[in-house]
Write a structure and sequence with these properties.
The chain is 79% helix and 0% strand. The longest helix has 41 residues. The chain is elongated, with a radius of gyration of 23 Å.
Amino acid sequence: MGVRAGIVVCITSFLLGSLFTHWIADSLTLWKSPVTDEHLWTAALYYSVLTKAPIDLLYILLAIVALGGVIIFWSFHDGEAGNLMFDGGSIVLYGTTVMMYLYSAIPNVVAKFSSLPCQQIDEPFPRVLRFPTLELASNHLICSVALTGVLILQAGRWWAELSDGDDEPTSLEEKSEGPQYTC
């Protein structure tokens, strides 16, 4: 596996890990049935804490995302058939993740969860926050699936390159066979 593919795998794995930290909130809203007000309050409070994180963390995350995108495009630009297929698919999935996060998840968190109403966790959850909370969990799930697809495509690329190398004879095999004469 090339250095660029290794960097893409590392960056994608880091981003998946970042998304998996949201499991605290997302598991309560996506996978627990029925979704109770307590589950929604827990998720909303978690997202509210995220809005109070230092802005430098967001800049670091954006730099890592940008580096991953640049590396995938750089690898795609080589023009090899394997790169076009595997890196092309990776670009689509990576781009889907970036667009979903930039145009849906981040604006949703900033607009709806930067200031929560002062209520107790046992009080009814505000209807105006119910859909954004569920939508945010769904966005995280879609981004996780897309990034998992990037990892699968990069692993497929590695496997394809490995199997292509098996077809070519090595220099030792050529020497041991000796010259081939035909009559």
